[in-house]
Amino acid sequence: MTLLISVFAAIIATIVWYKNAPKDDWKVGTLALMYWGASLMWMCDAIFEYAELKEEFFQPAVADMINDSFLGLTVVALGLIIWLVVLLVKDPKGVLRAKFLAKKN
Amino acid sequence: MACFIIPATEAIVTTIAAKVLAKKEKDSAIHYDGSSEVVEKSRFSKKLGWLNNMLWGGSALLALEHVWHGEVVPWFPFLTNAADAADRAEMFHEMATVGVSMAALVTVTWAIMVLVSSRLEKRAAKMEEAAVPVSDKK
C-alpha cells in the first residue's frame, strides 16, 4: 500500500509538473523526483519481499494494509512538507525576499 | 532495517560532486562564455540535481518508514538492530543487498533519464540548426 500510494503521488506530481512545463515556479519537479525516488526504493524492497514471501506477498492481513495505508499517507504528507520547505527557502518567485526587503526599507 | 543509509550515503557523495561540478562550470563559463561546451556541462550539473532529489527524497521518506516501524530510534545507537551482534549482521546483510539495489535502481533510472534528455536536446539542436535560414548561417 505504501508503494502504491507513493507511486500515485509521484504520478500526480509529474502530471502537475508537465502541465506547467517548461515553467517550474512551484518546484513541482523536485516533489515529483522525491516521490519517484521513494517509489523506486520501495519497489526494490517489494521485489526482495516477494522473493522471500512468494504468494503470501499478495495476501496481506487487513490490519497490515490499514497500517501501510496510514504510513503511505504520512509519507505523502512528509514529502509535501519537505517540498514546502524547499519552495520557501529557494523562493523562486521572490515573494519572501520582496516582503523582507520591503520591511527593511 | 537500515537500507536507506546506502542511498543516503550516495546522496551525500552526489551532492558534493554536484557542488564541485557547478563551481567548475561557473569558472569555465567565465573563460569560454558562449561556447556550446559550457552549455552542455551546465546541463549536466542540473541533471545531477535530479539524482540528488531522487536520492535525498527517497532516503528521507524511507527513513520515516523505519521510524514508523521502530527500526530507527532517537537514542544511541539510533538503529534498534545495531545493539545486538546477530541483528547487526542481519542489518549489514540487508544494507548490502536491498540498500545497494535501491541505490543502483535509482542511479540506473537517472542514467536513462539523462540519456533520453541528452538525445532530445541533440535532436532539438539539429532541428533548430536546420530551421535557420541560409543567409543567417553566413
In DSSP terms (H or I, runs of 4 or more residues), the helix count of chain B works out at 4
Tell me, rounded to a whole number, the average pLDDT of chain A: 91
Query: N- to C-terminal separation of chain A?
Result: 51 Å
**Poorly predicted ranges of chain B:** 38-42
Class inferred from helices and paired strands of chain B: mainly alpha
Number of helices of chain A: 4
- Biggest sheet record of chain B: none
Q: How confident is the prediction overall: mean pLDDT of chain B?
A: 84
In total, the number of strands of chain A is: 0
Please sum up the structure shown:
Chain A is mainly alpha-helical and 105 residues long.
Characteristic terms for this protein:
heterodimer, A: mainly alpha, 4 helices, B: 138 residues, mainly alpha, 0% strand
3D architecture notes:
The complex is a heterodimer of chains A (105) and B (138). Chain A has helices spanning 2-20, 28-53, 62-90, 95-104. Chain A is an all-alpha fold and 105 residues long. Chain B has one domain. Chain B contains four helices and no strands. In chain B, 21% of the residues are buried. Mean pLDDT of chain B is 84; it is low at 38-42. Classes of the chains: A mainly alpha (105), B mainly alpha (138). The interface between A and B is medium-sized, with 25 and 24 residues.
Give a topology summary.
The complex is a heterodimer of chains A (105) and B (138).
Chain A lengths: L1 H19 L7 H26 L8 H29 L4 H10 L1
Chain B lengths: L4 H27 L4 H33 L16 H47 L2 H4 L1
